[in-house]
Amino acid sequence: MDLANLATQLNAGTILPESIVLVTLMVVLVGDLIVGRSSSRWVAYAAIAGLLGSIIALYFQWDIANPIAFLGGFNGDDLSIVFRGIIALSAAVTILMSITYIEKSGTALAEFLVILLTATLGGMFLSGANELVMIFISLESLSISSYLLTGYTKRDPRSNEAALKYLLIGASSTAVFLYGVSLLYGLSGGQTELSAIATGIVQANAGQSLGLAISLVFVIAGIGFKISAAPFHQWTPDVYEGAPTPVIAFLSVGSKAAGFALAIRLLSNAFPLLSSEWKFVFTALAVLSMILGNVVALAQTSMKRMLAYSSIAQAGFVMIGLIAGTEAGYASMVFYLLVYLFMNLGGFCCVVLFSLRTGTDQISEYSGLYQKDPLLTLCLSICLLSLGGIPPLAGFFGKIYLFWAGWQAGQYGLVLLGLITTVVSIYYYIRVVRMMVVKEPQEMSDVVKNYPEINWTLSGMRPLQVGIVLSLIATSLAGILSNPLFTLANNSIANTAILQPIIISSAGAQSFAPVPKTSPPVSLTDRT
User: Fold this and answer.
1) How far is CA 274 from CA 207, 492, 528, in A?
2) Which of 3, 355, 405, 439 is the most exposed place for a label (fewest CB within 10 A)?
3) Is residue 457 classed as helix, strand or coil in its secondary structure?
4) Domain range holding 475?
5) 526: pLDDT strictly greater than 80
6) Is the link from the previous residue into 231 a cis peptide, with omega within 30 of 0?
7) For residue 346, what is the enclosing H or E element?
8) Example GO biological process term (predicted)?
9) 19 occurs within a structural domain
10) How much of the chain, in percent, has pLDDT values that exceed 70?
11) Taking a C-beta distance cutoff of 8 angstroms, is the pair 313, 340 a contact?
12) Closest CA to 226 of 287, 138, 295, 335
């Protein structure tokens, strides 16, 4: 094989966004080694600039002619572009809320950014991984970096405890996932590329074997851990409570998006013969996640633990689109994760700001906050109401699209359960909003009575303010102006070749067909 042919098959330009993140990581690492502690004044902004540059590179790679790279190991199709963009953008917003938080914890900011960028790289590669070895390496890059981030504030015993629990449970889930993947490799006759695994299984007449069923169960267990689906959620509440708040903000969006990207790509390509079986398993996971996440969240007194159980419930909602298996279902998943990025990170920005100013995250201490901090109250209220699905915010339209796709696919029981648990979730979200807004001055909590004077000129506070304002605007407008986002989600599915053979058409039902690029935008009324 000559060098020109090898370069063509490698197609290394496909990973230009990841290369930009890698260069940024090296700049932050080497710059900190050379300059020292004074580098904290610029490394965060360099990291954000690199992530935004990566997102721009993803934009120019949309709908490229040849998305396959590294001899079939990486697929830079439109589906991967959307998920890689979600992960990069979540990392950028996480950095905005991390600057002051990490500096006040007494730890090094540059080292935190290096680990966070490594986790971002792992998530981005996992979103496009098309081969078993690359899937495992990307998954481990994301997981090990997440363990380090969870225990980064090493002077905090809660952070150490959270990191240890996360490591032990995560290592177990990784071992289970690896065993399932090894079975898949053996049953397919030694194939590692996802597109060849199903063919190898058919040729070996292993489509209905017990080994393939065991492999499926183990793979789903690994994916369930990554997306915080019940009953693989045991790590979530403790890690969310003990880990640094910016870290759990990234885990709740970036890690979850990478997990769903892996689920779509691996299950639809490697297990097409068992599609009904894995949909049945995910139905059980979705039911457990929606019920457990929303019901247990009602009893929480810590804001971070409440958001942990909320994250479990949100995973259950997103799984409705995966179970539907239609073009509308996958597009609804992408759309919901896009809007979930803004509303969830916006909520965590507010939690970070409140904890920096008061030193607590107890829900009862938010009482009367609107009298002292109107901006924080407004943003947190909008983000929580959007997570609850209150119209006309982004979360309402995200859930409408998910439920409609599930209804089209005949998942009537799952959709009805989703509607009921959504009503339950509204209670614990509105409880926080009511406590912040409705309380009389004499009912103000002691913490809010002693609330420090708001000063955005302090070091590192301006980026946090930018993150709060951007999340507030995006969450408010993403619902009203949802057509561009939904068109993006639809096109990402319609232009992804690997999904076309397994997409189930819904005859006689209203279709969420992708909007042609040359046609005028579809109005919200026409769509719903």
Assistant:
1) 8, 25, 32
2) 3
3) coil
4) 273-503
5) no
6) yes
7) helix 327-358
8) photosynthesis, light reaction
9) no
10) 93
11) no
12) 138
Indicate the number of domains in the chain. 1
**8 Å CB contact between 261 and 194:** no
For 128-139, the DSSP string reads: HB-BHHHHHHHH
Q: How far is Cα 318 from Cα 402, in angstroms, rounded to an integer? A: 7
Structure tokens that stand for 483 in this block: 């057509």
Query: Per-residue DSSP letters for 238-251?
Result: HHHHHS-HHHHHHI
Q: Is there a domain that residue 367 lies in?
A: yes
User: Do the domain assignments include residue 322?
Assistant: yes
Q: Are 129 and 265 in contact (CB under 8 A)?
A: yes
Torsion of CA 128, 133, 135, 136, to 10 degrees: -160
Say which residue the tokens 């097409």 belong to. Answer: 272
Output the six-digit token pair for 396. 């309402």
- The 10s digit of each residue's pLDDT in 463-509 is 898 999 999 999 988 888 888 888 999 999 988 888 877 665 443 33
Q: What does the DSSP 8-state code read for residue 361? A: -
Reading the block at residue 371, the tokens are 């009298």
Give the three-state DSSP class for 341.
Answer: helix
Let me know how long the chain is.
Answer: 528
H or E element that contains 68 = strand 68-69
What would the two tokens of residue 464 be?
Answer: 């946090």
CA pair distance 50, 125, nearest whole angstrom: 16
470 to 93, 121, 213, 345, 507: CA distances (angstroms) = 9, 24, 45, 10, 41
Distance of CA 512 to the CA centre of its chain: 23
Contact by Cβ (8 Å): 513, 526? no
